Amino acid sequence: MYVKYGLLDSLLLQFIYPNFASSKESFMTHLLSQNEDTIVALATPPGIGALSIIRISGPNSFFAVDKIFSGKKPIQESASHTIHYGKIFEKDQLIDDVLVSVFRAPNSYTGEDSLEISTHGSPLIAQKIISLIIESDVRLAEPGEFTKRAFLNGRIDLAQAEAVADVINSNTEASLRGARNQLDGLLSQKVDQLRELLVNTSSLIELELDFAEEDLQFMSIKEILNNINRIEDEIDNLLLSYSFGRIIKDGVNVALVGKPNVGKSSLLNYLLKESRAIVSDIPGTTRDIIREELTIDGILFRLFDTAGIRTSSNLIEIEGVNRSREAVQNADIVLFLNDATIGFSSDLYNELLELTNDERILSVVNKIDIVKTEDPRYVVGISAKTGEGIKALFDKMTLKAVGTKNYSEKSAIVSNIRHHNSLQKAKAHLEGAKRSIEEKLTGEFIAVDLRNAESALGEIIGKVTSDDILNNIFSKFCIGK
């Protein structure tokens, strides 16, 4: 008998049939039983500035500040999302005039009672206020602990928590937009939708196991395969976005490579609009790698001006050439520069092929202001002296970096290696479920693989996690965030 069911709410289904619950107990249950410490930290960079902001979060926040704050009314009597002017005292000694921002649970960044104290930007003032607060059963916050509490209290998921650090560290418009997309939950929503479909599918398979004697079928094999293929397609799209996401987040490493005197240093100086590298007719002027950064269309390009790759008896130059080879191996793009007055350096090109993939090499000819060339091996011709062809070079570099696929600002993009690895694990388990179906194995085998795929997706947003993962993520945050 075949009974067709719609997609049931997984939580209700697991409540009715407790044995459907995943064999992996969610680590969240343990995490939510965290201690009730109140924490404090300086949220602004240390040093002298116009303002300093001190952050406090936890059940003892209002009491601790009221002990040292004098305003029109106590903080404990103040409404959420209000700001109060007053003075901070150490006994009878005035420390500073301050503004205290009040955020009551659960409508705060951390989900707890929280405060932010704005003071004058003296390190001494901030230090004294933090010391006074610590006296009231408050401890110093660990790196990323405020955001960690926001995650543990359900204010944000794990992918969004990681995006907080990416927003802070973003240094181009593209990296900021990508981090904001993740913080706004675009990736989380996509992953959660896939998880929900997996949960519903595996739950119905497990439901059949409980009614095996009645020979009931709640979902056909065809429907199961359709769901698996649909989820795999979505995962493949996310995996394909990783190269683009990594680039907008971390930037692109570009090695400027060529024989001596082809104009690598001249090109670097032109791009940077300053004399950063020494330009000379003497071969071997560049002995070490010069590293500079350039933003093109919102994407960060790290330029590595390498020593000319050639045979030399000079020990210093030999070391420079070795470092050049290493830079080529680590580069996302190898800008292979040639001299139009000499021609294409086939021997060096062949050497580059031993160090990197052909797809990473961008063959460019310099000095077209002296000699024009139609050699098809060159992707673009430039003049590092006049600037001719530089715009075309930028276009080629951007195309080489991000490819032809366009991702809109509303696209879910993967930029984190942890997310990428979890998606690969999920796909591997889905492939296992398909093999079980092809081999006509029983539903237990299919359900196990689907549950494992669900857990792998859950790792991305923190539905399934561990102490080690959390400590690794939040230890990279600054203190006070």
CATH architecture of the largest domain: Up-down Bundle
Question: How many structural domains are formed by the residues?
Answer: 3
Low-confidence stretches: 1-34, 276-287
Query: Could you give the order of strands across the largest sheet?
Result: 3-4-5-6-2-1-7
The overall average pLDDT, rounded, is 85
- Which radius of gyration do the C-alpha atoms yield? 29 Å
Main β sheet profile: 7 strands, mixed
- The CATH homology group name of the largest domain: tRNA modification GTPase MnmE domain 2
Question: What gross morphology would you assign?
Answer: flat
| Count of beta strands | 13
Fraction in beta strands: 15-25%
Short recap of the structure:
Helices cover 44% and strands 16% of the residues. It is α/β, with parallel strands linked by helices.
Search tags:
Four Helix Bundle (Hemerythrin (Met), subunit A), seven-stranded mixed sheet, 13 strands, Rossmann fold, six-stranded mixed sheet, 16% strand, 481 residues
List the helices and strands and how they pair.
Blueprint: H1 10-16, H2 28-31, E1 39-42, E2 51-57, H3 61-66, E3 69-71, E4 82-90, E5 93-103, E6 114-120, H4 123-134, E7 139-140, H5 145-152, H6 158-169, H7 173-183, H8 186-210, H9 221-240, H10 242-250, E8 252-257, H11 264-272, E9 290-296, E10 299-305, H12 315-330, E11 333-339, H13 346-355, E12 361-366, E13 380-381, H14 390-402, H15 417-438, H16 443-461, H17 467-474
Parallel strand pairs: 1-7, 8-10, 8-11, 11-12, 12-13
Antiparallel strand pairs: 1-2, 2-6, 3-4, 4-5, 5-6, 9-10
Helix pairs in contact: 6-7, 7-10, 8-9, 8-16, 9-15, 15-16
